[in-house]
Design goal:
This protein is mainly alpha-helical. The protein has helices at 2-13, 29-48, 52-65, 69-79, 86-97, 101-114, 120-129, 147-160, 165-173, 186-198, 205-211, 216-225, 236-240, 247-261, and strands at residues 20-23, 133-137, 140-144. It has 14 helices and 3 strands. Helix 7 (120-129) runs antiparallel to helix 8, helix 8 (147-160) runs antiparallel to helix 9 and helix 11 runs antiparallel to helix 12 (216-225). The model is unreliable at 1-14 (pLDDT under 50).
Length: 264
């Protein structure tokens, strides 16, 4: 139980959400050795290929045939070095077709950080309809989707391409939070991403209201919500939560305050 609790906390730190958790177990020695050989061959093949389209072909083929999500994550790191338009092609393909929700989520994040403005439709589609599938991180598995990651990637893309702001805001408003799978906090993500794009302070009202709740768990949710707004200053309400009667609320308030305002 302690291991799973630590994993859930780590998932929150990474901005991820899961509908369930199971112990998957580490790979066998034989499988670990196979994965190492595949990664070694991948690196050799990429080094030997001089063209971006050729590297894209190598990575796309590996993603299609490789059963290990850990190896596919290594391929994602290599894909981040591709230039446009190959980078867009690679990550939009992974986002649309990979079997693991964590891999798809990483593809969405990469498009937000590195993709061109042409990626907005793919991210909007994933934020609205990405399916719930298995997700594996280390020896812990569960169920999730890439919808949350794609939602925030829309905001990040808009920050990089300000002329997309109106279109990005419209796509975020069009999302249907009522259809979210339990546990993925998509309704919150929609408001948080929309705030990042528009700066509309009225979107923060639900999070401030949670901080006033008599229920400690609700106050924790309220504090954690401020992690995903990209604020430039710590709100007074979060500072006040540093003196909350509940230890978990205080702990999260300290973490969030440091993230927003630094160690001070």
């Amino acid at each position: 139980m302690k291991k799973r609790t630590a994993f859930v906390t780590g998932a929150l730190l990474l901005g991820m959400a899961f509908t369930s958790l199971v112990a998957a177990g580490p790979p066998t020695r034989e499988e670990a050795e196979r994965q190492a050989r595949v990664v070694e061959q991948l690196n050799k093949s990429l080094a030997a290929e001089a063209t971006a389209p050729g590297k894209l072909t190598i990575l796309t083929r590996l993603m299609a045939r490789e059963p290990s999500e850990a190896v596919r994550r290594v391929a994602l790191q290599a894909g981040a070095k591709l230039p446009d338009p190959e980078l867009d092609t690679f990550f939009t393909g992974v986002l649309a077709g990979d079997a693991d929700a964590g891999v798809r989520s990483e593809a969405a994040k990469s498009l937000g950080r590195l993709g061109s403005e042409k990626c907005l439709p793919a991210l909007a589609a994933a934020a609205a309809t990405d399916r719930t599938t298995a997700i594996l991180l280390g020896d812990i598995g569960g169920q999730s989707s890439a919808r949350r990651s794609a939602t925030f990637a829309i905001a990040e893309l808009a920050a990089r391409f300000p002329k997309l702001a109106d279109d990005a805001a419209a796509k975020l408003r069009a999302l249907e939070p009522a259809a979210e799978p339990k546990g993925e906090q998509l309704a919150d993500a929609r408001l948080q991403a929309l705030y990042q794009v528009t700066g509309d302070a009225t979107l923060l009202k639900p999070f401030y209201e949670r901080l006033k709740s008599p229920d400690a768990r609700t106050r924790v949710d309220g504090v954690v919500a401020f992690r995903f707004l990209k604020l430039k200053a710590v709100p007074a309400e979060v500072t006040a939560a540093l003196k909350d009667a509940d230890a978990e609320v205080r702990s999260w308030a300290e973490l969030v305050a440091k993230e927003i305002g630094g160690p001070k």
